[in-house]
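sorry for the late reply, my laptop died twice this morning and i had to redo everyting from scratch. anyway the thing you sent over, i finally got around to it. pasting the sequence first so we're on the same page, its 288 residues, then the predicted structure underneath. double check i copied it right bc i was rushing
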Amino acid sequence: MSTSPCLEIRYWRIVLILCLIATSQVFAADPTIVADTAAVVETITRHNHTSSERVTPYLLYHPAASVQQQERSLLIFLYGAGGSIRNYNLKRPPYARLRQELANRGYYIVVPELGPLHFMNDVAQESLDAVVADVLKRNSIPAGRVHVMGTSMGGGSSLAYAIRRPDLIQSVCAVMPMTDFGLWVKEKSHYLQPVARAFGGTQDEVPKVYRKNSAVFNVNAFRDIPVLLIHGTADRIVRYSQSERLAKLLQDNGSQCRLITVDNMTHKDEVMRDCQLEAVRFFEAAVR
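ok and here's the structure:
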């Protein structure tokens, strides 16, 4: 798909703005990062998965050292638009209790570098497949204990990944997700070009790509995958109706889905502040 110079400039301007909006933290060159958050020590290691096509960096949060050896679990965390492994939602204060509780329950958390505006396109999926396989093998994690969570773009991408990998994913927690990409770019037209770049065309040009990544058109994929949706009613970036619609479709289809509604909350990480323990309990109950 060809693009005009004006659209090209606009695209990179959006990338720059998104990267500047989020709080940035540069990790040290040492591959092992020890973060002390509220007197809780977290061990985070940095890795690269190398294939013939690409190198995919990722961060790995480790279970708490005090936890006795037990069957481990893995949570895949996908960041929002403009994010990276240096700048991602999970490391922020509204997720601190979630990280701590999961570490105490023997969870690894992987944060893969998939690009600032990937929207779980084919390249992102292939990279994530490789990273997950690498983490499971290195840490002897059973394939039946893999969950996925994401915020905003990461929320929509988490749902999209579960659609493509229903035999791998045990549960999905999607925070402020877009559930219908075609409708979302109509509602937020300045994202039309970044999504078109990720998907290889506009909705009119490649409608099947938009549908295969949109959870509302793939409800049968979630018949055996519990879904937890968390969304604020005052969200103007990804409208609350995106989650509301998916929740109804899944529930009507007999799927296990819960929508946590946060009244008057806009599109920000604070939406997770009071939902962290609910998410932990959700993951623990979803292992099958």
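Residues 122-139 form the longest helix (18 residues).
thats about all i looked at so far, will dig more tmrw
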